[in-house]
Design brief:
Distance between the termini: 56 Å
CATH class: Alpha Beta
Shape: globular
CATH architecture: Roll
Order of helices and strands: EHEEEEHEEEEHEEEEHEEEH
CATH superfamily: 2,3-Dihydroxybiphenyl 1,2-Dioxygenase, domain 1
Strand order of the largest sheet: 2-3-4-1-13-16-15-14
Strand content: 25-35%
Number of strands: 16
Number of helices: 5
Radius of gyration: 18 Å
Amino acid sequence: MTQKTAGIHHITAFVRNPQDNVDFYAGVLGLRLVKQTINFDAPEVYHLYFGNHIGSPGTAITFFPWPESRLGKIGGGQVGTITFAVPEGTLSFWEERLNRLGVAVTKAERFSESYLQFTDHDGLQLELVERAEGALSQWGFGGVPADKAIKGFGGAQLLSTAPAETMALLQDVMGLERVGEDSGMVRFRAQGDIGNLIDVNASPVGWGRGGSGTVHHIAWRAADDQDHAKWRAHILENGYNPTPVKDRQYFNAIYFRESGGILFEIATDTPGFDNDEPAESLGQKLMLPSWFEPHRAEIEAGLLPFNVRVLEGDAQ
């Protein structure tokens, strides 16, 4: 059976403070908070989703803000750096913006592309790169107009403890194409136009430690439930041990840990984040699945409040 993913569906990370998280990803980066819900496996913790105007697959970065979380260590068995794609000709806008808002930026070159690299409040490693591929965003916020806004993921750097095995999985099982090597990284391309370029370390990396400032998992795209079932069978046939299908309300998911230690998810593109609230009001209130609704008062009492707000540096 031949399966090919279109690329990244979403990436999920650990952070500490929800207001800091919202201020950075909505306030600084201009992404839309498209969903506030809870970690279905730990309902005392938020699950916040940021992306384009509707959180399209390939645009959504998600977080578990957990104030008591230990500080993580980025290393093997994790996504090391998350890459966001911005429109061509806008990198200078983003460099000025990040500097003005006090976000320290360094510049890098890789695969003949220029990157702006920086970290969020928790130390999560991020970078921006100009790409022609991918639809322009329809969402502007604060000091980020829609025509300069982040399109979605450019890709990610995977830090593997067993890179040969991780790369074989990407190429032979996930259907990505190996396209080059540079700066100690091997690049693979998925068939989509966003979230489609994945760099893997060529040499093994020592183990990281989960906690705030680290990625919990990377999710790959499946078109729908029928395609998802094929993916689960395909993963099993290739010697991995995927979980049963889990209902995440906005997509269905399976999880498995690949040989280099990275937790992979395969998630359906459907039904999407407007499954339980109108597209025009996404992210404005806490949404709970039906099985947690009877416990809403208790859940809300245990969560720190936050506001999506324009930063002082953007206020007119």
